[in-house]
Design brief:
By secondary structure, this protein is an alpha/beta fold. It has 18 helices and twelve strands. The strands form two sheets. Strands 5, 6, 7, 8, 9, 10, 11 and 12 form an eight-stranded mixed β-sheet that branches. The longest helix is centred in the N-terminal third of the chain and has 23 residues. 43% of the residues are buried.
Length: 455
């Protein structure tokens, strides 16, 4: 049957995607893009199916393995990768894809096992998946009241060490809010060019809405919008004209907190893909200078591409390693933006791979790197100038503890960010005058912002 052949092809492409992520260590968004580009003739519905199933299997992996292990004598960690992924794909369709019949999920898993040369395991695959079908409404998950860490790890598919870290630092309620948000669909956040006339903004929003995009203005910043549904961002009206760019609201708040003024010199030391660089340049309105730096030609190439599209002229892009001091920048900047490499725990909903790649023992090395960069970054700031420190993570060691370390070891003092923020976010400022944002509590990525003045 042609329909069954197509259905099998889609699942085969998902399986190959998961195997490549597993075997080669590639990021799933990179692999998926390659697959969807190669099979570009597939219609939008089929591409969406591939993306949902592949991403969903990775996103829900801990839960899927828990469910499979509950009905299988052979545990998932003992299965060959091909069979384990086929089982996870089947379980995900049974539990989370209402548009797929349970019988189809089982039958196609069996066909896929045969196609991959595992004829002898088809009975096993079929038996376990059909048992899950019969029992899917009565699966015994760990009880929240007995062991919150275990419950949250399985129910939200988050490694236990991350759940434990968050619980210790922020409590169970905030932790669960973040975990829930990590599994929700994220709208695309865009920053409208602040210099656009009001009628031009309204015209763009009207065109997007007509193209089937749901457009919601941010409650935090008037030029920030959340987009969901409809076309890819690059295909929307105004993109090629540089009228807007993709940037999370949390990242936009960095420039608000920095207090950019006309004519200033700003250095963005870890700038790719250039969101903050472009925001600063826009606020300067062609005055002053932005030095936008990152460690490789690839990263600076992305910055340059975005700057050209946005039509910005007061930016100089440089390849520069933030751990190496640049003498020519000594005390040159009114503002230095240090959005340093971090664990990325604030963007797990957008970068599903992070929670499996990152290990607890990696955190100490990340903090060491951050402090190495900060030891250079403050030296670029003029006396009385601002170092704006930010990360896209939720972890005190990388955030509040680094700020404490800076004030104790470098000629820097904390300046409260409260007055720079919209009223609705001011209550989120901590006792140390810095801002920790949580996805699921605030309507943005998990993000940290600290403002320090050079003494």
């Amino acid at each position: 049957m042609p329909g069954e052949k197509d259905d099998l092809l889609l699942r085969q492409l998902v399986l190959e995607t998961l195997l490549e992520v597993n075997n080669k260590g590639e990021y799933i968004n990179v692999v998926l893009k390659g697959v969807l580009d190669k099979y570009n003739y597939l219609d939008g519905k089929k591409k969406a199916f591939i993306k949902k199933l592949a991403t969903g299997c990775l996103e829900r992996k801990i839960e899927l393995d828990y469910v499979i292990d509950g009905f299988s004598k052979t545990k998932t960690n003992k299965m060959k990768p091909v069979i384990r992924f086929i089982m996870e794909m089947g379980a995900y369709q049974i539990l989370y894809m209402d548009n797929v019949y349970d019988t189809a999920a089982c039958n196609l898993a069996v066909s896929l096992a045969k196609k991959k040369g595992f004829q002898g395991l088809t009975g096993f695959v079929n038996g376990v998946l059909r048992t899950i079908c019969r029992n899917k409404d009565s699966i015994a998950y760990p009880k929240k009241e007995d062991d919150f860490i275990k419950y949250a790890s399985v129910f939200y598919s988050m490694p236990e060490w991350i759940v434990k870290l968050w619980c210790e630092q922020y409590g169970e309620a905030t932790t669960e809010a973040m975990l829930q948000a990590s599994l929700q669909d994220n709208p695309v956040s865009v920053r409208m060019n602040e210099n656009l006339a009001r009628y031009a903004v309204e015209d763009l929003v009207g065109k997007w809405t007509a193209a089937g995009v749901k457009v919601t203005q941010s409650e935090y910043l008037p030029y920030a919008y959340a987009l969901s549904g409809g076309s890819a961002v690059q295909d929307l009206a105004g993109y090629e004209d540089g009228y807007f760019t993709v940037q999370d609201v949390s990242s936009m708040l960095v420039c608000e907190c920095a207090g950019i003024k006309y004519g200033q010199t700003v250095i963005d030391i870890c700038a790719a893909p250039g969101g903050k660089t472009m925001h600063v340049a826009t606020k300067l309105q062609g005055t002053g200078k932005v030095y936008s730096c990152d460690v490789s030609e690839y990263k600076t190439g992305r910055i340059t591409e975005n700057i050209r599209r946005m039509g910005l002229t007061n930016v100089e892009v440089r390849v520069a390693d933030a751990t190496v001091f640049m003498e020519e920048f000594a005390e040159k900047a009114d503002v230095v933006l240090a959005d340093v490499p971090c664990s990325g725990l604030g963007v797990l909903g957008k970068k599903v791979d992070i929670k499996y790649r990152l290990k607890e023992e990696d955190l100490a090395e990340i903090v060491k790197l951050q402090r190495e960069i900060l030891s250079n970054a403050y030296r670029y700031v003029k006396k009385g100038g601002i170092l704006l420190y930010s990360t896209c993570t939720v972890n005190r060691a990388e955030n509040n503890d680094n700020v404490k370390w800076m004030t104790e070891n470098l000629p820097l003092e904390v300046v409260s960010v409260e007055d720079c923020l919209p009223e609705t976010l001011r209550k989120a400022v901590g006792a140390d005058k810095t801002l920790q944002l949580f996805r699921g509590v605030q309507q943005c990525d998990g993000f940290y912002i600290a403002k320090l003045r050079r003494i």
